[in-house]
Amino acid sequence: MNIHEYQTKELLRGYGVAVPDGRVTHNVDNAVAIAEDLGGERGVVKAQIHAGGRGKGGGVKVAESLDEVRQFTDEMIGMQLVTPQTGEEGRLVQRVLVEQACDIKKEYYLGLVIDRATQRITVIASASGGMNIEEVAKTDPDRVIREAVDPAIGLAGFQCRKIAAKIGLRGQQISEAAKLMQALYKCFREKDALLAEINPLAELGDGKLMALDAKMSFDSNAMYRRPTITELRDFDEEDSKEVEATGHGLNYIALDGNVGCIVNGAGLAMATMDSISFHGGKPANFLDVGGGASPEKVGNAFRIVLQDPNVKIILVNIFAGINRCDWIAEGLVQAMRDQDISVPIVVRLAGTNVEKGAPILEASGFPFIMADNLDDASTKVMASLEASA
Ligand code: ADP
Ligand code: MG
């Protein structure tokens, strides 16, 4: 789960991280009032979307006057902001953060990630921060410093000082950076984060360090115990199909292929996607209907998968343990009756009550394409796609 920059900054401020003064708004007059309130003529207007690279797409602008604050806010709110991370359709900007313009001497990068290889939270830092860190990581990986944290000890002071010195900080800045790293680590642990990124961590004209941009994402599976973070969720930034699926107890993730998948169990769903890819196809989604799927749940799964206009065929792959194939079959038939389904449906049923499920599909008169196993199902999906191409 992701949150906005202004929310991350607010959260980190509570942990003692230095961030610019600023406030969020969705209204032009308010933006000017905020800038006025912050004192000074200059201000930065920053589009709030769940994607980075905004600076490159025109989503971060330094205003030299209140008139410019008005102009930039007016331009940004309502625009489809395209950045290297949004895809070409961009994201609708509904809010901007208006904050103090800082006098930047140098931009550093500081991040915390969970390194799955070492299974440790790892600090990543670089003297080459700012908008081109992805480039630096590719072309000059030696400029990116990594330090793994021992979970039993936590992020130690000496590690922080070592990292700070390695990215070229000196004197007082080293202890300032160490404090900041520990605050970030504390927040990361206490809020079940998966990623925390300060880019840039700016060295200001007076030598002080400040987090000018901040991004955090959190482990959705832990959010049941983090109500203050859950509150920050912005449904407008999420795929509406995914939001609806969560409401129906379905695990759905939209992808960009054309084979819709309805599967029980996350492992089988992944195997199904692999099998489709292996046969040269591209899954349109990941969908796990879970155990004990009722006919209603199957119907909802169809409705959500079919909201994606790219879907040209649906593969239903059920290996019933807790599930019952006859319920799934009833759900399939019901969905065919209730919904206007024009794409072919390939069905593979196995496990509990399969001997009752298959006859229900046959008796329905709908043209389900039956498959014996997963490989057979993927083969039939590809054959059907080719035949209709
Ligand atoms: P993104 O990473 O999405 O491009 P950032 O918040 O990092 O957005 O902003 C891009 C650049 O804009 C920063 O690298 C920094 O140079 C500049 N910038 C951002 N916030 C401020 C600020 N408050 N004052 C001065 N410059 C800023
Ligand atoms: Mg940034």
Task: Tell me what the structure shows.
- This protein is of the alpha+beta class.
- It contains 14 helices and 18 strands.
- The protein has three domains: 1-20 and 103-237, ATP-grasp fold, B domain (D-amino Acid Aminotransferase, Chain A, domain 1); 21-101, Dna Ligase, domain 1, CATH 3.30.1490.20; 239-388, Succinyl-CoA synthetase domains (Rossmann fold), CATH 3.40.50.
- Helix content is 38%, strand content 25%.
- Strand 17 (345-351), helix 13 and strand 18 (369-371) form a beta-alpha-beta unit.
- Helix 2 (28-37) runs antiparallel to helix 4 (66-76).
- The mean pLDDT is 95.
- The structure holds adenosine-5'-diphosphate (ADP) and magnesium ion.
- The site of magnesium ion has 3 residues, from loops.
Summarize the structure.
The protein has 389 residues and is an alpha+beta fold.
CATH top level assignment of the largest domain? Alpha Beta
- What is the beta-strand fraction? 15-25%
Major sheet details: 6 strands, antiparallel
Q: What is the average of the pLDDT values?
A: 95
Radius of gyration: 25 Å
In the CATH hierarchy, what is the architecture of the largest domain at level 2?
2-Layer Sandwich
Unreliable stretches (pLDDT < 50, length at least 5) are none
What is the H level of CATH, i.e. the homologous superfamily of the largest domain?
ATP-grasp fold, B domain
Q: Care to count the β-strands?
A: 18
Summed up, the helix count is 14
Shape: elongated
Kindly identify the CATH topology of the largest domain.
D-amino Acid Aminotransferase, Chain A, domain 1
Q: What's the helical proportion of residues?
A: 25-40%
Question: Structural class, from secondary structure content?
Answer: alpha+beta
